[in-house]
Amino acid sequence: MPIYKAPLEDVRFVLDEIVGAGKLAELPGYEDATPDLIAQVLEEGAKLCEEVLFPLNQSGDGEGCTFENGVVRTPKGFKEAYATYIEAGWQGLSCDPAYGGQGLPKLVNTMLEEFICSANLSFGMYPGLSLGAYNALSTYGSEALKQRFLGRLVDGTWAGTMCLTEPHCGTDLGLIRTRAVPQEDGSHRITGTKIFISAGEHDLTENILHLVLARLPDAPAGTRGISLFLVPKFLPKEDGSVGPRNGVACGSIEHKMGIKASATCVMNFEDATGWLVGEPHKGMRAMFVMMNAARLAVGIQGLGVAEVSYQNAVAYARERLQGRSLKGTAHPDKPADPIIVHPDVRRNLLTARAYTEGARALGALVGYKLDVAEKHADEKTRREADEFVQLMTPIVKALFTDIGFESANIAVQVHGGHGFIWETGVEQYVRDARICQIYEGTNGIQALDLVGRKLPQDMGRLLRRFFHPVGAEIEADMETEELAEFVLPLAKAFAKLQQATAIIAQKGMKDPEEAGAAATDYLRLFGLVALGWMWLRMVKAAQAKRTAGEGNAAFLEAKIRTARFYMAKLLPQTNALFITIMAGSKPLMEMDEAAF
Ligand SMILES: Cc1cc2nc3c(=O)[nH]c(=O)nc-3n(C[C@H](O)[C@H](O)[C@H](O)COP(=O)(O)OP(=O)(O)OC[C@H]3O[C@@H](n4cnc5c(N)ncnc54)[C@H](O)[C@@H]3O)c2cc1C
Predict the structure, then answer these.
(1) How far is the centre of ligand 1, averaged over its atoms, from the C-alpha of 143 (Å)?
(2) Which of 67, 133, 139, 367 could make an SS bond with 253 (beta carbons 3.0 to 4.6 A apart)?
(3) CA distances from 589 to 452, 513, 592, 595 (A)
(4) Is the pTM of this model over 0.90?
(5) Catalytic residue numbers?
(6) Which residues form the Acyl-CoA oxidase/dehydrogenase middle domain (predicted)?
(7) Which ligand 1 atom is at minimum distance from the Cα of 442?
(8) Run of H or E including 213
């Protein structure tokens, strides 16, 4: 049976040392979000995840969702778990108090999302999509739409979806065919078919609000002609209660590789009543609000799977007895040593651990900057934080989901043949984690976003939000002797990143295929350096606390040793990535299409 314990101690460390203890409470509107309050909230959230959501993860995978006569049923226990979730107010944790939310920082919700995704990724899809709909509606919806719908998304009695994909159009949303025809009363009639819609239909809530991309009759071709509409499953009555059925129905659900307890639906819209969200033809802008938040959230899904995979790999490596330590018998009282003594098993475990803890730190920093971008009193600070978030969004999405998949694979490997067996529980993590690399823009598309949009934006202004603080920190720590083994490898990798950036920018201007060919390797290189930066910060904090005799000595020592592993064994991948980037586009593009 798989196990899971929320990593509360590490979260607290990251909040105190990477974000800064008390920093969130300094932001206007978040005065109540003190370290102690956040710790209490996360402890309660951890209990919910460990005791309510996690026990349904494997059974939900085994049972899956069912579809009968247009009705979708989630697996046994999901309805009750969702009721527990919303009754305790978790859905509105970071939502505006004006609509019934608790108004806590987004970062607190991000931390909770990690626990949810470790415990039960499929379950997390339902509240996650609703939060995405809340974000888009609260940013771009008219006052009337907000008053009518936001409260129900916040209390979780109604859910949300995000309807972009159509059978012929996934990555290229410019191909969307769903139509919206304006009506005299200001509403629109929506007609079209959307596929792969997560939470498109289910039995958890009394109503579902679909955010749908569609074209108005006078729409220009391509993404410039897409508008966003809110289309409820049931039209609300004047008093806000659920009214008649709207012209939207689920045609079928997908049978798929993973996240089997998350309903992935074909949704048919036929003259469905909907309301415009934001301006006509500017739907992509509104959708991007939802997609950017969702991209960060998908990154956190990857982190969640990485953590639970690591925990299960370690638990198994401690108890599985095979062979003897290469140095001789380590546990003479046992018929063989636990596999955790073997260097190769340790390589696996430490790889998962170093990626996971590094990603948690980076995710927390990005989550904090998201709060700063929204709440800080100073306009310049807000703008700079927003630029940092924009730059890091594709990295968090792609790197963290790759890490999630790699760690899940590691957990299977550490379990040997038992890992391949369903009952053991870890092969589910591989299947579940795989979709995170695909939806919300595939990881290849994230890499293109990084090199094609974020890198050249405003002559590299976004890049400076990363390069300046990292460069300054490396320089400041360069002379500190006890940091040498950490800062020197980071300085080398950072130099490679700077060099690669300049070369890609230069070559990409002349030939966009050069940038396209480098994109995925560049994103990984960037991501590894970003995690290296986090490890430098964490090691400094751990060393300082150790010297001061504060904190849990074993925890701090393990931090320092994991940092050493990261710098010595994982960060050097940046050298190979740099060489691959330098090889350019020719090895990819010289092959004739017909020769494949
Ligand atoms: C379980 C599940 C849940 C989903 N949930 C939702 C949801 O809630 N709402 C929703 O709207 N959609 C959802 N999706 C759809 C998902 O977002 C798309 O599958 C994804 O965006 C990729 O689109 P596609 O499948 O059409 O692949 P394609 O766009 O056909 O891409 C195929 C391959 O080509 C590559 N490619 C495509 N274009 C380019 C390019 N220009 N440059 C380089 N490479 C390129 C891609 O990276 C990919 O590897 C879901 C999908 C699944 C499987």
Answers:
(1) 33
(2) 67
(3) 18, 9, 8, 12
(4) yes
(5) 440
(6) 162-271
(7) 47
(8) strand 207-214
